[in-house]
Amino acid sequence: MESFFKSMNVAASGMTAERMRFNVITQNIANAETTRTENGGPYVRKYVTFREILDSTFSDNDTNSFSGVQVDSIEEDSAPFRLVYDPTHQDADAEGYVRYPNVVALKEMVDMMNAQRAYDANTAVISTARSMFNSALNIGRQ
Fold first, then answer.
1. 59: pLDDT confidence band, cut at 50, 70 and 90?
2. 64: which residues sit within 8 A by CB, 6+ positions away?
3. Which residue of 22, 74, 76, 94 shows the fewest CB atoms closer than 10 Å?
């Protein structure tokens, strides 16, 4: 019974983390053309890093010590901004170049697909665990 709830918790933590990742990706896509933010510069692409959650009873011999995943941090990408020559743009520098965010829409779409697939995989784990639990209950009733 404990392993049933543990597998559900692991999958649920994965779903929560992937939902945060999905939200950050959509924020990146929405700001892909934002040349001026509250800080004065162009929007900076963000990405999510995860970390594993371990049971407090962790030991080197324990293969069941993993108990989930969570968002560790939301980092800013250090990739350079895109420079586009447009001297008529209000944010153009003295040479006529505009600094656009370091967001590449194609990369964000691929990341979004990966986040969606990971979310779906965690949903399948929960569905399968629930089905197995129901089957075990039915066996006990017979």
1. low
2. 3, 6, 55
3. 94
Provide the token pair at 25.
């990706």
Distance CA 104, CA 113 (A): 15
CB-based burial of residue 10 (10 Å sphere; 0-12 exposed, 13-18 middle, 19+ buried)? buried
Q: Residue 138: in which H helix or E strand, if any? A: helix 105-141
**Res 121 pLDDT > 60:** yes
Contact 126, 12 (CB under 8 A): yes
d(CA 35, CA 19): 27
